[in-house]
Amino acid sequence: MSLPRHLSSSHSVPGTFRPKPWIARCACAFIGAVLLGPSSLRAQTVTQTLRVVISPLGNLFAFPNSVALSRSGVAFNSYTGTLRIQYRGRTTQATGTGTITVQATADFAPAGGPSIATPPNTSDVLTYTCSSATLGTPCSGQQKVSTNASTNVVTLSASQCTGGGGPCSSTDPDTVDLMFTLSDDPQYKVGSYSATLTFTISAS
């Protein structure tokens, strides 16, 4: 006896339908990817050491273009002028030192007037004195400017530095004033004369 066509064995029985196996596997694979995604993002921490070597140092700055020496009072009074030096310095603890010095690197020119290297008279020298320095020890007494060697302006000792207070100065920049004196010898020819002074700062 043959079954009717609508009851053929090639059809599933109602109420017993199952999804095809490849569909179930695909759904599971997709869910697994979503769940595993966030766990693959990991933070990484790296440390790096920075090193810096602080060295002893000094610098000079804010010099005027020139300093004019002028005379006042009775005839043949000496010419005078003041130069303010601004500087910063830092010396090594315990053993450090530092200096500011000055030397004439070009004598007065043109010829016929004052001279640093060969003054007309022994009293016709260019000299200077130092005011109080805000850092270090200023020069003491009257100093003679030379073309052959540098002379002292300020001396720094160990563990000194500019600014910050405490063991350092309370000012930044530090300052010292130089008061120059040049005799007015009657032998000088009338005219304008200039010389060049070179200042040097060092620190260790």
What attributes does this structure have?
mainly beta; 9 strands; disordered N terminus; 1 helix; single chain; Immunoglobulin-like; 31% strand; 8% helix
Describe this structure in words.
With 204 residues, this protein is mainly beta. It has a single domain (57-203), classed as Immunoglobulin-like (Sandwich). The chain contains 1 helix and 9 strands; from the N terminus they run αβββββββββ. It has one helix at residues 21-36; strands at 57-61, 79-90, 98-109, 126-130, 137-138, 143-144, 151-156, 174-182, 194-203. The strands form 2 sheets. The chain has a 5-stranded antiparallel sheet with strand order 1-2-8-4-6, with no helix packed on it. The longest helix is centred in the N-terminal third of the chain and has 16 residues, at 21-36. The termini are far apart. 17% of the residues are buried.
Low-confidence spans: pLDDT under 50, at least 5 residues? 3-13, 21-31
- Strand residue percentage: 25-35%
> What does the oligomeric state look like here?
single chain
**What's the CATH architecture name?**
Sandwich
Q: What is the overall silhouette? A: elongated
Short recap of the structure:
The chain is mainly beta and 204 residues long. The chain has 1 helix and 9 strands.
Topology:
Layout: H1 21-36, E1 57-61, E2 79-90, E3 98-109, E4 126-130, E5 137-138, E6 143-144, E7 151-156, E8 174-182, E9 194-203
Antiparallel strand pairs: 1-2, 2-8, 3-7, 3-9, 4-6, 4-8, 5-7
